[in-house]
Structure formats: C-alpha cells, structure tokens
C-alpha cells in the first residue's frame, strides 16, 4: 500500500521542451553545444514556452499531483552580472499555473542550461567563479519562489560528471595536458560545493531538498571476485554524491582512490566544512537500466549517448538500454539500506519511436508493460521496508531526447513533430495516457 500523499507525475527539462529560443532574453546554453546536427537542436523543443497551459491541462486530467521541471539558467541571466526579469516572470506564471491545477512544482536548478558565455570565459563548473555565480542566482530564484515551492532539486544527475565522456553539459573542457580524471574530480568537487551552499540557503528559507543522482545498477559479469570489485567501483560513482547528500562528506573509498591515483582536485581551506552543509532531506534518483561489470573494462560510457554492456539475461530497448525492472527494486533496497532516507523516483520511462496507426492512434503497449513492471517492483521494495514516496515519469509528453532526437519518445502524449519538420506540434493522447491516469486514480493499486 502506497502512502496517501504519494507523488505521481512527470519530469522534463526546459531546454528539451520549452523552445522560445530567442524570446524573453534567453541566451545560448551549453546544452546547445552538445548537439551534433544528426537529429535536431533545442531551439524549438515542443513549444512549451507558449503551450504549457495546454500541457498542464493534460497533466491535470491524468491526475498528476507533482511535476518536475528545470529553471533555465540561460533564460535567467543575459550576461554575467545581469539578471533577466522576463525570465523570472515566465516562471512566475509557469509555477502559478501548476498550483492552480493542484500540481506541486518541483524545480531543478541546474539541468545542463548554463549560459555559453560562462563556458567560454571560465570553463564552466571547472571554475569556482562559476560556482559563485550559480549560487547567487539560485539564492535569487529561491527568494522568488520559496513561498510557492517546497521541494527543490539542485543538480540533475550530478554523478554523470564521473561517467566517461565529454563534460560539456557542465560547461567544462579538459585542458590539454591535464589528467581527465583529475578534471572530472574537480568538476565533481566544485558542483558539490555549489550544491552544499545552495542546500544550506534553501533550508534557511524553510524548504526541502531532494539530492539527486542517476543510478545504473551494475552486476558482476561473473562470480569472479574481481568482477564484484569492478561492480562496486561502478556503483561508487553514484555513492560519492549520495554520501554527501546523506552524510555531508566524501565516502572513504572514493577519497582514498583519488589520493592513490593522484587525481585529487583542488580543495580549498574550509571546503570540507561546506560539504557538511550538503545534507539533504530526501534522496531522488533517475533509473532506466542496468549494466554488467567485468574487471578492467568500462561498464558504461557516455560519449554520444549512454552505452552499456549487454546482459544476456535481459532484453534491450531499440536504443540499446536494458529493460530491468528488478534492478529498480534492488537499487531502492540498496540505497535505503545504506542511507535510511526517504527516496523519490524522479525519472523513469521507456523511449521508443512511436508510430501512429491508420486510425490516428498510438498503441504503446510496450510502454505500459515497461512502466507497469517497474511500478510493481517499486511497490515490492516498499513492502520490503523501503520508504519510497513518489514516482515521476520521464517526459510525460514527448520531448526531444538529451541528444536532440525526437524519435526517442517517452510520453503519454504524442507531439506531432519530428527531427526536421516541426509540423503543427499537436498533442495526441496515447493508449498509455488512460492507463497511467487509472494507475494514479487507484494510487498504484491497479496496474
């Protein structure tokens, strides 16, 4: 039995959904630098900037009581020292419209939308100057909305910093001659400092924080002990962040490993005291897949997209991600055993190239099957003692993927556009719309 106040809803980013690229004082963001031209770009999104009320009506019809979104940094600051009032006014109304519909707003303060000028001038979060700029912006945002917003997420999937691949989502390019692992650890440390300072300020305003990481469950490929060690190492990339959120310090393994490898970042005097301020009220996770670990091999990379090793016991989606509902249950149990903190699932879903049939319908039984099985395993974890308090689906309306691809759709609502042709962006309910509506109405009792 789920809590009566269990949160049901969805999650998006601003840059994948809003559009309005040249409106309201918005400037280019670092996420724009990650697009390759192979698919699309983030300039139009699904036009949420103009259509969010229409979308919120659909969420209200489904029964959402929570909605996670990002406040786009590149819409809030037109240059390093100038805050953009038009950006604040946009989110004033955006949040008010959610509240009118009985939907709790859960803003993410950083979801890869740093203004490009900060990347060009300071190399993004590799610089403590950018930490200072970000913290001051967050204080102004929290001041503006603390009376309307109770739960905040500061960084999206912060542990993605340690995944092998470019760091442009965090505005950073590794300088020539620098050890890439040291560079990653520096961005990790700087963003954890930023997180801790913003976390402290949010608490001063009487609000709550949901410390977030993405968790890719990693199984040893064999029963060889070295594969188990490799699996533990893979998992530590999430724990190093979650430990700060739960305990206020680096875990002993990861810190020792940085020292042993010679990859310690620059740590300023007083930084460890700042990390102590990073303890959050809840943990929140994104979960989509699992991988397998073999000693001496990478189990996950994130060059152009997340690439994982195939597990022979599990099916794969058309985009190469494992379908592993039991892995969600394992993850929830591991995290709760380790931290004993309430957990929210703030991203989960199934990406697919949905096609409309001859009757204009989208029969996405595969999505229903995926989500049903994950919710079932979530409920089993709760029965086993895990304090899980919410389930937010990723992209409840079709949005561009993180690589600006429109064919990787997650929504209960179809948006009529493709990679190159914007068409009319009409919203069309999929079969999963009514299914999720019933799940919410029964508070997860009937799946």
From TrEMBL:
Record keywords: Glycosidase, Hydrolase
Domain of life: Bacteria
Keyword Hydrolase: yes
Annotated active site: 347
Keyword presence, Metal-binding: no
Descriptive protein name: 6-phospho-beta-glucosidase
PROSITE patterns reported in the protein's UniProt record: GLYCOSYL_HYDROL_F1_1 (PS00572), GLYCOSYL_HYDROL_F1_2 (PS00653)
InterPro entries listed in its UniProt record: GH (IPR017853), GH_1_N_CS (IPR033132), Glyco_hydro_1 (IPR001360), Glyco_hydro_1_AS (IPR018120)
GO MF assignments: beta-glucosidase activity
Organism: Longibaculum muris
UniProt cross-references to Gene3D superfamilies, sorted A to Z: Glycosidases
GO biological-process terms attached to the record: carbohydrate catabolic process
Pfam family, one: Glyco_hydro_1
Lineage: Bacteria, Bacillati, Bacillota, Erysipelotrichia, Erysipelotrichales
Family that this chain belongs to: Belongs to the glycosyl hydrolase 1 family.
Cellular component terms (Gene Ontology): cytosol
């Amino acid at each position: 039995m789920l809590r009566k106040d269990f949160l049901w809803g969805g999650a998006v980013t601003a840059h994948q959904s809003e559009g309005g690229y040249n409106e309201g004082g918005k400037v280019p963001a670092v996420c724009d630098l990650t697009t390759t031209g192979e698919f699309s770009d983030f300039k139009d999104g699904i036009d949420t900037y103009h259509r969010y009320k229409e979308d919120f009506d659909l969420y209200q019809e489904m029964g959402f009581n929570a909605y996670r979104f990002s406040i786009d940094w590149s819409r809030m600051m037109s240059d390093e020292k100038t805050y953009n009032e038009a950006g604040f006014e946009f989110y004033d109304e955006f949040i008010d419209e959610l509240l009118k519909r009985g939907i709790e707003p859960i803003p993410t303060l950083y979801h890869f939308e740093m203004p490009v000028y900060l990347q060009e001038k300071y190399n993004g979060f590799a610089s403590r100057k950018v930490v200072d700029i970000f913290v001051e912006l967050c204080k102004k945002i929290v001041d503006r909305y603390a009376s309307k917003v109770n739960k905040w997420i500061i960084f999206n999937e912060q542990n993605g910093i340690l995944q092998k691949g470019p760091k442009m989502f965090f505005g950073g390019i590794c300088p020539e001659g620098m050890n890439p692992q040291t560079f990653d650890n520096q961005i990790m440390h700087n963003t954890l400092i930023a997180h801790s300072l913003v976390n402290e300020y949010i608490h001063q305003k009487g609000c709550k924080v949901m410390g977030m990481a993405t968790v890719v469950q990693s199984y040893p490929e064999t029963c060889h002990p070295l594969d188990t060690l490799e699996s533990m190492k893979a998992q530590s990339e999430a724990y190093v962040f979650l430990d700060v959120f739960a305990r206020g310090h680096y875990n002993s393994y990861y810190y020792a490993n940085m020292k042993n490898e010679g990859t310690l970042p620059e740590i300023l005097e007083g930084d460890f005291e700042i990390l102590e301020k990073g303890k959050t009220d809840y943990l929140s996770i994104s979960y989509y897949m699992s991988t397998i670990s073999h000693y001496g091999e990478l189990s996950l990379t994130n060059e152009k997209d997340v690439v994982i090793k195939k597990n022979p016991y599990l099916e794969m989606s058309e985009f190469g991600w494992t379908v592993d509902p039991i892995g969600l249950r394992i993850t929830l149990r591991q995290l709760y055993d380790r931290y004993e903190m309430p957990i929210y699932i703030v991203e989960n879903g199934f990406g697919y190239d949905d096609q409309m049939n001859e009757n204009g319908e989208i029969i996405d039984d595969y999505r229903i099957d995926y989500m049903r099985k994950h919710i079932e395993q979530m409920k089993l974890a709760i029965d086993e003692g895990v304090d899980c308090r919410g389930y937010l689906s990723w992209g409840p309306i079709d949005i561009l993927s993180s690589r600006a691809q429109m064919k990787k759709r997650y929504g209960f609502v179809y948006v009529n556009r493709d990679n190159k042709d914007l068409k009319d962006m009409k919203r069309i309910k999929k079969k999963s719309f009514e299914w999720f509506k019933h799940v919410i109405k029964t508070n997860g009792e009937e799946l």
